Amino acid sequence: MGAMRVRTGDTVLVIAGRDKGKQGKIIRALPKERRVVVEKVNLVKKHQKARPGMESGIITMEAPIAVSNVMLICPSCKTPTRVAKRFTEDGRKVRVCKRCGAVIS
Predict the structure, then answer these.
(1) Is the entire prediction scored with pTM above 0.85?
(2) How far, in Å, are 6, 79, 80 from residue 100 at the CA level?
(3) Fewer CB within 10 Å, N- or C-terminus of the chain?
(4) Domain boundary assignment for the chain
């Protein structure tokens, strides 16, 4: 089980499950559980009890999905891609698009 190749702020495409085909930005990454929370994907209803500063009711929120069900969209070629890790000349490890070879920040 290696490191997750997506991180918070990346745009991803959902490739499996109920929301297959949707795109969104990663709001939160949960590396220990190997899950990510993507905006407007995997929406669930939650019954919330009133607390000080919050109101009660049924709220809609994003639930985590497995990282294996999302694919990173390369910022330069705008296509879903797999990610490689490479070292630069100055010794930094960077993520690289497998399709176009561009460095993903």
Answers:
(1) yes
(2) 17, 10, 11
(3) N
(4) 1-73, 79-105
Q: In the numeric block, which tokens belong to residue 31?
A: 């590396």
pLDDT at 1 over 70: no
Q: pLDDT digits over 72-92, tens only?
A: 999 999 999 999 999 999 999
> Which CATH number is correct for 1-73, 3.30.70.270, 2.60.130.10, 2.30.30.30, 3.30.420.140?
2.30.30.30
What would the two tokens of residue 104 be? 């993903």
Start-to-end C-alpha separation, the chain: 23
pLDDT in tens, 2-30: 789 999 999 999 999 999 999 999 999 99
Contact 102, 76 (CB under 8 A): yes
Nearest-angstrom CA–CA distance, 97 and 72? 9
User: DSSP for 63-81?
Assistant: PPEEGGGEEEEPTTT-SEE
